[in-house]
## 1
Amino acid sequence: MISTKNPRSHTYTLRFVATTIGLLLSFVLLLVMTGNSRADVSLVQTTNSADRDVTNITATFGSAATEGNLLIAVCGSKDSITISGPSGFTTAINQTGVPSQGIFYKVADGGETNLTCASNSQTYLGIHIYEYSGMVTSEPLDSTGSASGSSDTPSSGELNTNTADTLLIAGLTLNTESSISGWSNSFTEEHDFTIGAGRPADRMTFGGAWRTTSTTDTYSTTATSDNDDWRGQIAAFRIHVPILSVDIVDSSGEPVSSPSVGLSSVDASLECQTTNGTLGTSNERIRINNTTQNDNWTLTMAATDGSGAAWSNGEASYSFNDSAGNPSGCDSGQLSLNPSTASIAPQTGCSSAGISSGSNAAFSQGVTDSITLLTATESQTNCYFDLTNVGLTQAIPPETPASGTPYSLNVSLTLTAN
């Protein structure tokens, strides 16, 4: 699949081909495609809290979290103790030491407001929490990294992303009262807060920053602060990438590397004749995948090289879009599609409501250069749909030379957001 930042149009190219022997004529369809666009990631809300001589610490969002958004909690402690994340959260990274810190996450059920981290003994605790929209809702964690030391340049440590589009969260816990500034590598600071009183040894500082990525790479950030013990961590979470795409897949849903559709072979003849085939079979399904918010789209088919294209075996050729003759197409050749015979199978748990098949139509140069296979109006999103059993009929003009080399025609499927 070729990525593009515009999800409005997605094309898959095909080619007709088949093996020929003796006086037989035959054909095949070869398929290609494009597509993808990243969603907007938004920090919906964030807040923090800190206290001393406690075994738990709670931060409260200003409004209830929205279902499907990603919740992240970064919790730090002054002492070398075990920190537990909020109830129902998964640990991204959790380390003990002086200081201790952990990053925890959860896809929101909806309604979450109070998030609490706990320790296994009384200590100084700080928590900063985040809610982000535009993230994946299944296995959001991509990778983590960490570092620790005693200096005035606390660092998150490094991580290597496995996914191009990620959200990076960096957390710092410092065993001193300080201010954190100068986050490097395009990180935006969200939190810089302290707790404690009296001697510097009784004070702490907590910080958090974030950014997004668009390429797989090694990422980290470093800040400046007063000189003391610190711990830094970084976690990458996958951003949801909406897709409006067309592909050819097998019965297991895996892309077919060299898909083909063979039209029936015929003997060379002095008379006009036809050959038939089926576009979309159980092992070569046309799959439309839509995880965008747009529920209106159209799937069409056209010759890849435009209306001037032709069937060719490298020596001889004939037309796919000339309606002249009786029956139609018999003078020079014409290809017809019958989407009305097609079957539409939605993803399990989804419905094909709002998706309709196109009408039986034939290519005609300058009149019908593209044929509609499917049209969706207010269809279900975050689903895929498999199209099979589209009828193909090619009128073959009289005296078309027989060939041991297949006649072929490149054709494209284009999926367009309406």
Note: The chain has two domains: 9-37+243-417, 42-238.
## 2
Amino acid sequence: MSRKAEVYHNKVLAGYLEKTLAGTYIFRYHPDYFADPEAPAISLSFPKHQLEYQSPTLFPFFFGLLSEGVNKQTQCRLLKIDEHDHFSLLLRTAGADTIGAITVKTIDE
């Protein structure tokens, strides 16, 4: 089963991030967010267009939302997450109090 998350820009649903069973990462804008001419792209690396973005690794933009060093080690130990499981760490830590306008929230299926 793939794992999915909602991506918010300033508390507005901007799109979806998914890790497929094959390990591919996919980001796509929500249709309403895409259609809003006032809604900005979530980053320069994700210009607004209707196609989905795909990557064999977690996109650098989302990787940049993760803690580093001792903070990352502490989070992984407390949350019982492997330090190399960046997607799980993102889903568990980027739902609130992130630096900047982006938050990521797990979609429970």
Note: The chain has one domain: 3-65+94-107.
## 3
Amino acid sequence: MMNLKEILSDIARAIVDHPDDVTVVSEEKENEITLTLGVHADDMGMVIGRHGRIAKAIRSVMKAAAGSCGKKVNVEIKD
């Protein structure tokens, strides 16, 4: 079974300038998992992207990964 928290962390670390500051907090309720991504303040723009395109792509990848596990995932980006 995939570790969704680790997958999100790896994706975020690959696109930011401060990979050591990436944090992922997981909260699970029945079939739904909420992952909260935290990054360095300078990296916030890289994670969100223009008009939210990168954030949307991250959410799509995570939904695909969660679908193979039979779970629903929500990705939130902490300010």
Note: Residues 4-77 form a domain with the GMP Synthetase; Chain A, domain 3 fold (CATH 3.30.300.20).
